Protein backbone atom coordinates (compact mmCIF):
# COMPACT_ATOMS: atom_id res chain seq x y z
CA UNK A 1 0.00 0.00 0.00
CA UNK A 2 2.41 2.61 -1.29
CA UNK A 3 0.18 5.27 -2.80
CA UNK A 4 -3.07 7.06 -2.06
CA UNK A 5 -5.08 5.77 -5.01
CA UNK A 6 -8.20 4.22 -3.54
CA UNK A 7 -8.38 1.21 -5.86
CA UNK A 8 -4.75 0.27 -5.20
CA UNK A 9 -5.14 0.76 -1.47
CA UNK A 10 -8.21 -1.47 -1.38
CA UNK A 11 -6.59 -4.24 -3.42
CA UNK A 12 -3.48 -4.25 -1.23
CA UNK A 13 -5.53 -4.15 1.97
CA UNK A 14 -7.78 -7.01 0.89
CA UNK A 15 -4.73 -9.11 0.01
CA UNK A 16 -3.16 -8.51 3.42
CA UNK A 17 -6.41 -9.27 5.22
CA UNK A 18 -6.87 -12.48 3.22
CA UNK A 19 -3.34 -13.62 4.09
CA UNK A 20 -4.08 -12.95 7.77
CA UNK A 21 -7.11 -15.23 7.64
CA UNK A 22 -9.74 -12.51 7.94
CA UNK A 23 -13.07 -13.58 6.47
CA UNK A 24 -14.60 -11.45 3.71
CA UNK A 25 -11.40 -9.42 3.22
CA UNK A 26 -12.78 -7.17 0.46
CA UNK A 27 -15.77 -6.21 2.58
CA UNK A 28 -13.58 -5.61 5.62
CA UNK A 29 -11.18 -3.48 3.59
CA UNK A 30 -14.06 -1.24 2.53
CA UNK A 31 -15.29 -0.99 6.11
CA UNK A 32 -11.84 0.09 7.24
CA UNK A 33 -11.70 2.61 4.43
CA UNK A 34 -15.00 4.08 5.57
CA UNK A 35 -13.59 4.38 9.09
CA UNK A 36 -10.46 6.10 7.83
CA UNK A 37 -12.31 8.59 5.65
CA UNK A 38 -15.42 9.11 7.74
CA UNK A 39 -17.49 8.53 4.61
CA UNK A 40 -19.73 5.58 3.68
CA UNK A 41 -17.87 3.10 1.49
CA UNK A 42 -20.54 3.47 -1.20
CA UNK A 43 -19.70 7.16 -1.52
CA UNK A 44 -16.07 6.45 -2.45
CA UNK A 45 -14.97 5.75 -6.02
CA UNK A 46 -12.14 3.60 -7.30
CA UNK A 47 -10.62 6.58 -9.08
CA UNK A 48 -10.43 8.69 -5.92
CA UNK A 49 -7.10 9.59 -4.41
CA UNK A 50 -6.83 9.88 -0.66
CA UNK A 51 -4.95 12.63 1.12
CA UNK A 52 -1.68 11.32 2.62
CA UNK A 53 -2.93 11.60 6.21
CA UNK A 54 -6.14 9.72 5.35
CA UNK A 55 -4.22 7.03 3.49
CA UNK A 56 -1.97 6.56 6.52
CA UNK A 57 -5.00 6.28 8.80
CA UNK A 58 -6.31 3.56 6.53
CA UNK A 59 -2.98 1.71 6.55
CA UNK A 60 -2.87 1.91 10.33
CA UNK A 61 -6.36 0.42 10.62
CA UNK A 62 -5.43 -2.36 8.21
CA UNK A 63 -2.34 -3.21 10.26
CA UNK A 64 -4.49 -3.49 13.38
CA UNK A 65 -7.04 -5.69 11.63
CA UNK A 66 -4.29 -7.87 10.14
CA UNK A 67 -3.20 -8.42 13.76
CA UNK A 68 -6.80 -9.67 14.21
CA UNK A 69 -7.89 -6.87 16.50
CA UNK A 70 -11.71 -7.02 16.65
CA UNK A 71 -13.54 -4.75 14.26
CA UNK A 72 -15.59 -3.48 17.20
CA UNK A 73 -12.41 -2.15 18.82
CA UNK A 74 -11.41 -0.41 15.59
CA UNK A 75 -14.85 1.15 15.23
CA UNK A 76 -15.03 1.94 18.95
CA UNK A 77 -18.60 0.70 19.12
CA UNK A 78 -20.77 -2.39 18.79
CA UNK A 79 -24.46 -2.98 18.25
CA UNK A 80 -26.56 -4.76 20.87
CA UNK A 81 -30.36 -5.11 20.73
CA UNK A 82 -31.34 -1.66 19.44
CA UNK A 83 -28.40 0.19 21.02
CA UNK A 84 -25.04 1.32 19.67
CA UNK A 85 -22.55 0.93 22.52
CA UNK A 86 -19.05 2.26 23.04
CA UNK A 87 -16.57 -0.60 23.39
CA UNK A 88 -12.80 -0.88 23.36
CA UNK A 89 -9.77 -2.85 24.57
CA UNK A 90 -10.26 -4.37 28.00
CA UNK A 91 -14.02 -4.75 27.51
CA UNK A 92 -15.81 -7.82 26.16
CA UNK A 93 -17.47 -7.17 22.80
CA UNK A 94 -21.26 -7.65 23.13
CA UNK A 95 -22.50 -10.75 21.29
CA UNK A 96 -25.84 -11.47 19.61
CA UNK A 97 -26.11 -14.59 21.78
CA UNK A 98 -26.32 -12.41 24.88
CA UNK A 99 -29.48 -10.81 23.52
CA UNK A 100 -31.15 -14.11 24.42
CA UNK A 101 -30.99 -13.00 28.07
CA UNK A 102 -32.96 -9.87 27.19
CA UNK A 103 -35.59 -12.03 25.51
CA UNK A 104 -35.78 -14.20 28.62
CA UNK A 105 -36.21 -11.13 30.83
CA UNK A 106 -39.04 -9.82 28.65
CA UNK A 107 -40.76 -13.20 28.91
CA UNK A 108 -40.34 -13.27 32.68
CA UNK A 109 -41.50 -9.67 33.21
CA UNK A 110 -43.93 -8.82 30.40
CA UNK A 111 -45.11 -5.55 31.96
CA UNK A 112 -42.89 -2.77 30.54
CA UNK A 113 -44.03 -0.39 33.28
CA UNK A 114 -42.72 -2.61 36.07
CA UNK A 115 -40.45 -0.79 38.52
CA UNK A 116 -37.87 -3.56 38.52
CA UNK A 117 -34.68 -3.54 40.51
CA UNK A 118 -31.96 -5.11 38.35
CA UNK A 119 -28.51 -6.43 39.20
CA UNK A 120 -26.02 -7.06 36.39
CA UNK A 121 -23.04 -9.14 37.53
CA UNK A 122 -20.04 -8.66 35.25
CA UNK A 123 -21.58 -5.80 33.30
CA UNK A 124 -18.76 -5.18 30.79
CA UNK A 125 -20.01 -2.56 28.35
CA UNK A 126 -23.31 -2.42 30.23
CA UNK A 127 -25.13 -4.07 27.33
CA UNK A 128 -27.55 -6.02 29.52
CA UNK A 129 -28.21 -3.48 32.25
CA UNK A 130 -28.64 -0.55 29.87
CA UNK A 131 -30.82 -2.44 27.38
CA UNK A 132 -33.09 -3.52 30.22
CA UNK A 133 -33.31 0.03 31.54
CA UNK A 134 -34.40 1.19 28.09
CA UNK A 135 -37.03 -1.52 27.92
CA UNK A 136 -38.28 -0.91 31.48
CA UNK A 137 -38.37 2.89 31.89
CA UNK A 138 -39.35 2.63 35.58
CA UNK A 139 -36.54 0.21 36.45
CA UNK A 140 -33.27 0.91 38.22
CA UNK A 141 -30.07 -1.11 38.00
CA UNK A 142 -26.81 -1.86 39.78
CA UNK A 143 -23.98 -2.86 37.42
CA UNK A 144 -20.97 -4.66 38.92
CA UNK A 145 -17.63 -5.40 37.29
CA UNK A 146 -14.14 -5.99 38.64
CA UNK A 147 -12.42 -4.34 35.65
CA UNK A 148 -11.85 -0.59 35.68
CA UNK A 149 -12.06 -0.48 31.86
CA UNK A 150 -15.49 -2.10 31.95
CA UNK A 151 -16.84 0.29 34.58
CA UNK A 152 -15.57 3.28 32.60
CA UNK A 153 -17.09 1.91 29.40
CA UNK A 154 -20.45 1.25 31.07
CA UNK A 155 -20.44 4.73 32.58
CA UNK A 156 -19.79 6.27 29.17
CA UNK A 157 -22.59 4.28 27.57
CA UNK A 158 -25.01 5.11 30.38
CA UNK A 159 -24.28 8.83 30.03
CA UNK A 160 -24.64 8.81 26.24
CA UNK A 161 -27.98 7.00 26.50
CA UNK A 162 -29.29 9.31 29.22
CA UNK A 163 -29.42 6.45 31.74
CA UNK A 164 -26.72 7.58 34.17
CA UNK A 165 -29.25 8.54 36.82
CA UNK A 166 -30.83 5.10 36.85
CA UNK A 167 -27.77 2.87 37.11
CA UNK A 168 -25.33 2.55 40.00
CA UNK A 169 -21.86 1.35 39.01
CA UNK A 170 -19.88 -0.80 41.43
CA UNK A 171 -16.30 -1.80 40.75
CA UNK A 172 -15.66 -5.07 42.53
CA UNK A 173 -16.12 -8.82 42.56
CA UNK A 174 -19.36 -10.73 43.01
CA UNK A 175 -19.06 -10.44 46.79
CA UNK A 176 -19.02 -6.63 46.55
CA UNK A 177 -22.63 -6.61 45.40
CA UNK A 178 -24.76 -4.13 47.40
CA UNK A 179 -26.81 -5.58 50.22
CA UNK A 180 -30.12 -5.18 48.42
CA UNK A 181 -32.76 -7.53 47.07
CA UNK A 182 -33.32 -7.51 43.31
CA UNK A 183 -36.26 -8.53 41.15
CA UNK A 184 -34.00 -9.48 38.25
CA UNK A 185 -30.37 -10.61 38.34
CA UNK A 186 -28.59 -11.09 35.02
CA UNK A 187 -25.09 -12.22 34.22
CA UNK A 188 -22.95 -13.19 31.27
CA UNK A 189 -20.10 -14.66 33.31
CA UNK A 190 -16.79 -15.99 31.98
CA UNK A 191 -17.56 -19.58 30.95
CA UNK A 192 -14.85 -20.69 28.51
CA UNK A 193 -12.90 -23.63 29.93
CA UNK A 194 -9.21 -22.74 30.24
CA UNK A 195 -8.15 -25.54 27.89
CA UNK A 196 -10.41 -24.13 25.15
CA UNK A 197 -8.63 -20.77 24.97
CA UNK A 198 -6.25 -21.71 22.14
CA UNK A 199 -9.15 -22.85 19.96
CA UNK A 200 -10.87 -19.46 20.07
CA UNK A 201 -10.72 -17.02 17.15
CA UNK A 202 -7.62 -14.79 17.31
CA UNK A 203 -9.86 -11.73 17.73
CA UNK A 204 -11.14 -13.22 20.98
CA UNK A 205 -8.09 -15.15 22.20
CA UNK A 206 -5.51 -12.43 21.58
CA UNK A 207 -7.46 -9.23 22.22
CA UNK A 208 -10.52 -9.60 24.43
CA UNK A 209 -10.02 -9.70 28.22
CA UNK A 210 -9.38 -13.21 29.51
CA UNK A 211 -10.89 -12.13 32.81
CA UNK A 212 -14.26 -11.90 31.04
CA UNK A 213 -13.78 -15.14 29.11
CA UNK A 214 -12.14 -17.88 31.14
CA UNK A 215 -14.14 -19.83 33.71
CA UNK A 216 -11.53 -22.23 35.07
CA UNK A 217 -10.78 -25.86 34.21
CA UNK A 218 -14.40 -26.76 33.46
CA UNK A 219 -15.71 -23.27 32.66
CA UNK A 220 -17.96 -23.23 35.75
CA UNK A 221 -15.87 -21.33 38.31
CA UNK A 222 -17.79 -18.08 37.86
CA UNK A 223 -21.15 -19.79 38.37
CA UNK A 224 -19.88 -21.36 41.59
CA UNK A 225 -18.79 -17.93 42.79
CA UNK A 226 -21.80 -15.87 41.74
CA UNK A 227 -24.69 -18.19 42.57
CA UNK A 228 -24.32 -17.94 46.38
CA UNK A 229 -24.27 -14.13 46.09
CA UNK A 230 -27.12 -13.98 43.59
CA UNK A 231 -29.29 -16.32 45.65
CA UNK A 232 -28.92 -14.09 48.71
CA UNK A 233 -29.73 -10.96 46.70
CA UNK A 234 -32.77 -12.35 44.85
CA UNK A 235 -36.19 -11.07 45.88
CA UNK A 236 -38.72 -13.72 46.85
CA UNK A 237 -40.46 -13.62 43.46
CA UNK A 238 -37.38 -12.61 41.51
CA UNK A 239 -35.60 -14.24 38.62
CA UNK A 240 -31.95 -15.01 37.91
CA UNK A 241 -31.05 -15.22 34.21
CA UNK A 242 -27.60 -16.55 33.30
CA UNK A 243 -25.84 -16.91 29.98
CA UNK A 244 -24.47 -20.40 29.35
CA UNK A 245 -21.74 -21.81 27.19
CA UNK A 246 -22.57 -24.63 24.80
CA UNK A 247 -23.26 -27.85 26.68
CA UNK A 248 -23.32 -26.26 30.15
CA UNK A 249 -27.07 -26.28 30.85
CA UNK A 250 -27.15 -29.48 32.90
CA UNK A 251 -24.02 -28.65 34.86
CA UNK A 252 -25.22 -25.16 35.83
CA UNK A 253 -28.68 -26.50 36.64
CA UNK A 254 -26.98 -28.92 39.00
CA UNK A 255 -25.40 -26.01 40.88
CA UNK A 256 -28.73 -24.30 41.60
CA UNK A 257 -30.11 -26.70 44.20
CA UNK A 258 -27.43 -26.02 46.81
CA UNK A 259 -28.54 -22.38 46.86
CA UNK A 260 -32.28 -22.93 47.07
CA UNK A 261 -32.81 -22.20 43.38
CA UNK A 262 -34.55 -24.15 40.64
CA UNK A 263 -34.46 -23.82 36.88
CA UNK A 264 -37.76 -22.85 35.32
CA UNK A 265 -36.82 -21.84 31.78
CA UNK A 266 -34.07 -22.52 29.28
CA UNK A 267 -34.08 -20.37 26.16
CA UNK A 268 -32.03 -21.16 23.03
CA UNK A 269 -30.21 -18.58 20.96
CA UNK A 270 -30.82 -18.19 17.21
CA UNK A 271 -28.45 -21.08 16.50
CA UNK A 272 -30.52 -23.37 18.72
CA UNK A 273 -27.92 -23.57 21.52
CA UNK A 274 -29.40 -23.43 25.04
CA UNK A 275 -28.15 -20.00 26.06
CA UNK A 276 -30.26 -18.30 28.77
CA UNK A 277 -31.04 -20.22 31.94
CA UNK A 278 -33.71 -18.69 34.19
CA UNK A 279 -34.08 -19.70 37.82
CA UNK A 280 -36.26 -18.82 40.79
CA UNK A 281 -36.19 -19.56 44.46
CA UNK A 282 -37.31 -23.15 44.89
CA UNK A 283 -40.27 -22.17 47.09
CA UNK A 284 -41.44 -19.55 44.61
CA UNK A 285 -41.05 -21.89 41.66
CA UNK A 286 -43.31 -24.48 43.28
CA UNK A 287 -46.22 -22.04 43.22
CA UNK A 288 -45.67 -20.54 39.76
CA UNK A 289 -45.91 -21.93 36.26
CA UNK A 290 -42.64 -21.99 34.32
CA UNK A 291 -42.39 -19.79 31.27
CA UNK A 292 -42.31 -21.66 27.99
CA UNK A 293 -39.35 -21.07 25.71
Please explain how this structure is put together.
This protein is α/β, with parallel strands linked by helices. The chain folds into two domains: 6-67; 78-285, 3-Layer(aba) Sandwich (Rossmann fold). The protein has helices spanning 6-19, 25-37, 52-66, 71-75, 99-108, 127-135, 148-160, 202-205, 221-233, 249-256, 282-285, and strands at 77-80, 83-86, 117-121, 140-145, 167-171, 182-187, 234-243, 261-268, 274-281. A seven-stranded mixed sheet has the order 5-4-3-6-7-9-8, sandwiched between helices. Strand 3 (117-121), helix 6 (127-135) and strand 4 form a beta-alpha-beta unit. The longest helix is centred in the N-terminal third of the chain and has 15 residues, at 52-66. The termini are far apart.
Short description:
With 293 residues, the chain is of the alpha/beta class.
Which characteristics define this entry?
11 helices; 293 residues; elongated; 19% strand; two-stranded antiparallel ribbon; alpha/beta; Rossmann fold
Amino acid sequence: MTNGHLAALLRAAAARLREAGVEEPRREARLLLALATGSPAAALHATDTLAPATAERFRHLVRRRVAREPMAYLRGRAGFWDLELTVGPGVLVPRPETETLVEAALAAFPDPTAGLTILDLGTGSGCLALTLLRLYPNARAVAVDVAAAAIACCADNAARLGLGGRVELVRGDWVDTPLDRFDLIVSNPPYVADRELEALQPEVRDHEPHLALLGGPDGLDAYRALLPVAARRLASAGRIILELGAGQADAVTGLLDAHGLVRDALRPDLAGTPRALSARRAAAASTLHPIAC
